[in-house]
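Sorry, explain these tokens?

***
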Amino acid sequence: MGPVVALAFAAGAVALFSVSDAIGPLDPDTEYLFVGTWLLGWVFLFWASLVGGASAVALLRRAVTRQPVSPSGAALLGATLALIAVLVWTHPLWGSGSGSAA
């Protein structure tokens, strides 16, 4: 259940960041929508990371104690963690403003 919830949060973050990128911060009339979707995307990404991390710990504990591990759950967790890594890489929390452009 945890990997599915984490993947849903990560997919929601992808959707919110996509909307935020599509709106863009350039138009003063829609800047509040840009900021809102960007912040909500980070909230979803935070929860995806939290649930994904807890699911990873649970999966590792099951593997160490030699309990059966669901292959589909492990695959979903791997996909979630990869999606989180891509989102953090493409939407950094700092260092992405106009002052960081070279």
